[in-house]
Write a structure and sequence with these properties.
Layout (H helix, E strand, L loop, with lengths): L14 E5 L5 E4 L6 E11 L2 E8 L5 E6 L4 E7 L1 E3 L6 E3 L5 E10 L2 E8 L4 E7 L4 E7 L8 E7 L16 H17 L4 E5 L9 H10 L4 E8 L9 E6 L5 H11 L3 H9 L1 H15 L1 H19 L8 E7 L10 E9 L3 H7 L2 H20 L1 H11 L1
Parallel strand pairs: 3-7, 13-14, 13-15, 15-18, 16-17
Antiparallel strand pairs: 1-11, 2-5, 3-4, 4-12, 5-6, 6-10, 8-9, 9-10, 11-12, 16-18
Helix pairs in contact: 1-8, 3-4, 5-6, 6-8
């Protein structure tokens, strides 16, 4: 069986479409010169799998779904296969049997996902490097506990922002995340996971995949902010949404590891963003993420102001962060302080401030989860 639609979308930084199991064809434009398919990466879990197709540049591609047998494939125009590309990846997790890559005709390469029991799926594209991301969903298992995934930003060869005294963001946020895990794990009603618990590099798309694989209720990504103006300081919490705020765009560009121009290009593609945000209202629980962000921001500011006199409340903001894109739960990104500010860098270097940050974030999470609205929502989901 094969269905078609004539929609074509110009790729410009970011686009996202939601697909139900009833859709069988979705062509899409990803315009550019001849490119190489440089890699196919998979993160496989029992009820969720993410596949990333890495490209050397922009290309047009069409997306097709067929039955008998079930498969999803991407025809990438004017492309070649890298010589060291793994052309047949066996998965066999119930949802995805294998991923195959090969030549379709003289000018087109094809990547085929041999499907099993897939409930629904999504496809979106990201930059630097350009890649096509495919999320496959099965039937998620139900847990009796609330699940939280903590993401410590950066890591490994990616140091993140570096303070004037050579303090690395990757080290600071990992330590705060470990402290946060320890605090939250004291509650027997919670299960707490981390995207990384040591100094290793984890791609942005894998971090979201980990959160989805755990069927998490909350996803909290921890970062330290930076600015060219050394006097800039403060705390802010983000949720996923488009924005016209210039400073928020700068923060998102830095965390996404793309240029500010590319971030602005995303903002200009409102037709694409409207499609994306329509999906967010269903799957990413945008309003719930906003409430979570408000709880965390308020408790951080209130708790830290008890012992520190310099705390600046920069508020709750919104921006398009890659690490939050595709997360199927309430999700926020916390910028705990400016590592570029000499005063806040000294605080971030100390155990007391890191511990106070972790405890204040934990308090915000607990207040959010135990609020009457969230308690009732959680009970309904689990029942």
């Amino acid at each position: 069986m094969r269905g078609k639609t004539v929609r074509r979308i110009k790729f410009l930084g970011l686009c996202l479409i939601f697909f139900s199991p009833l859709l069988f064809f979705q062509p899409r434009a990803y315009a550019g010169a001849e490119v190489e398919i440089t890699g196919v990466r998979c993160w496989s879990y029992p009820e969720y799998t993410r596949v990333v197709i890495d490209l050397s540049g922009s290309a047009e591609f069409t997306e097709n779904r067929l039955t008998a047998p079930e498969r999803l494939f991407f025809d990438i125009s004017n492309s070649t296969l890298s010589g060291d590309l793994q052309k047949n990846i066996q998965i066999g997790n119930g949802m995805l049997k294998s991923v195959r890559s090969g030549r379709h005709n003289e000018n087109t390469s094809r990547v085929v996902l041999d499907l099993g029991n897939v409930r629904d799926f999504k496809v979106f594209t990201l930059e630097d490097p350009i890649r096509i991301v495919v999320d496959l969903y099965g039937s998620a298992a139900v847990s009796a506990k609330k699940r939280i995934v903590i993401d410590a930003g950066h890591g490994g060869h990616d140091p993140g922002a570096i303070g004037p005294r050579n303090l690395y963001e990757k080290d600071v946020v990992l330590d705060i995340a470990l402290r946060l895990r320890k605090i939250l794990s004291e509650d027997p009603t919670l299960e707490v996971f981390m995207t990384r618990d040591k100094d290793v590099f984890v791609p942005l798309e894998e971090r979201t995949a980990i959160a989805n694989s755990k069927n998490a209720d909350l996803f909290v990504s921890i970062h330290a902010n930076a600015s060219r103006r050394r006097e800039t300081k403060g705390i802010e919490t983000y949720f996923l949404n488009w924005t016209n705020d210039e400073e928020a765009l700068k923060v998102a560009a830095r965390e996404n590891q793309i240029s500010l121009k590319q971030m602005r290009n995303m903002q200009g593609k409102r037709n694409v963003l409207d499609i994306m945000l329509g999906d967010l209202s269903r799957d990413l629980k945008r309003e719930k993420s906003l409430r979570l962000a408000n709880y965390i921001q308020k408790t951080m500011v209130d708790e830290l102001n008890k012992d520190y006199t310099h705390i600046v409340d920069l508020g709750v903001k919104q921006a398009l962060f890659y690490v939050l894109l595709g997360a199927r739960m309430s999700s926020v990104l916390v910028e705990v302080s400016f590592i570029s500010n000499p005063i806040e860098e000294r605080l971030l270097a100390g155990d007391n401030y890191r511990d106070d940050l972790a405890r204040s974030i934990a308090t915000g999470i607990n207040q959010y989860m135990t609020s009457p609205l969230e308690t009732q929502t959680f009970a309904n989901i689990r029942n």
